[in-house]
Amino acid sequence: FVYASTARGLGVFDIYRGTIDGTSELIVESELGLAARSISPDGKYALVTEQVGEDANNLYLLDLQTKQMTTISKPPIEERAEHILGGFEWMPNSSGFYFATNAEREFGTLAFYSMESGGFERVFEAEGDVAQADVENLELCGNESEGSYLYWTQNNDGFDTLHGWQIIEKRPIEMPQLPEGNYYLDCEADGELLVRVNGWQTPGELWMT
Predict the structure, then answer these.
(1) Rounded distance, CA 107 to CA 85, Å?
(2) CB burial class (10 A; 0-12, 13-18, 19+) of residue 109?
(3) How far apart are CA 174 and CA 162, in angstroms?
């Protein structure tokens, strides 16, 4: 596993690799402060962020073998952005990952980073009134053989809207109409999506899609 620590005693967070037997190894030294966010399914890479002020961060790809970091997104300070709005969801074969970012936008949009191309593209960006809401709570369900589906929420005036994306066909999928509330997403072992709905009329209801 990979984690951030101030073990060097300088008050900044460096990136370490730990093992279940209790040993650790310093991978990257930091001047400002880093945070480990996610590891690729093949265990070769980690996603690392660097805090920028109180409301933004830069995003890097760390090669755990060479200990080299590649910049994924580091906007100019006057255009600083968030890249951890919805977490990170890797493709099962480690070919890339989905994340939410407001880089070059006012609100968070859904993006996909390709390991092959070394860049990211926007997959979903809401229009109209719902454009003024961040993409949040990413959850990837399914597998390569049966097809994978990506789900996420957008919070509009305090209530969530559920969205779905067919990854292979690269198209949105129609989602069921759920009660008003905040949604918490989780994938079951069989690939089905479980949604917990918390609302003033539905405290803790569970829905399966």
Answers:
(1) 10
(2) buried
(3) 9
- Cβ count near 68 (within 10 Å): 11
Predicted confidence at residue 144, as pLDDT, reads: 59
Structural contact between residues 48 and 62, judged by C-beta atoms closer than 8 angstroms: yes
Q: Which two tokens stand for residue 40?
A: 């690729």
Reduced 3-state DSSP string for the chain? CEEEECCCCCCCCEEEEECCCCCEEEEECCCCCEEEEEECCCCCEEEEEEEECCCEEEEEEEECCCCCEEEEECCCHHHCCCCCCCCEEECCCCCEEEEEECCCCCCCEEEEEECCCCEEEEEECCCHHHHCCCEEEEEEEEECCCEEEEEEEEEECCEEEEEEEECCCCEEECCCCCCCCEEEEEECCCCCEEEEEECCCCEEEEEEC
**HSE-up of 89 (CA within 13 Å, CB side)?**
26
The residue type of 102 is N
Residues 150, 138 contacting (CB under 8 angstroms): yes
| Among the ranges given (71-80, 135-144, 157-166, 177-186), the one the predictor scored with the smallest mean pLDDT | 135-144
- The pair of structure tokens assigned to 128 is 């109209």
Least confident of 8-17, 61-70, 75-84: 8-17
b/e string for 4-28 if b means 16 or more Cβ within 10 A?
beeeeeeebbbbbbeeeeeeeeebb
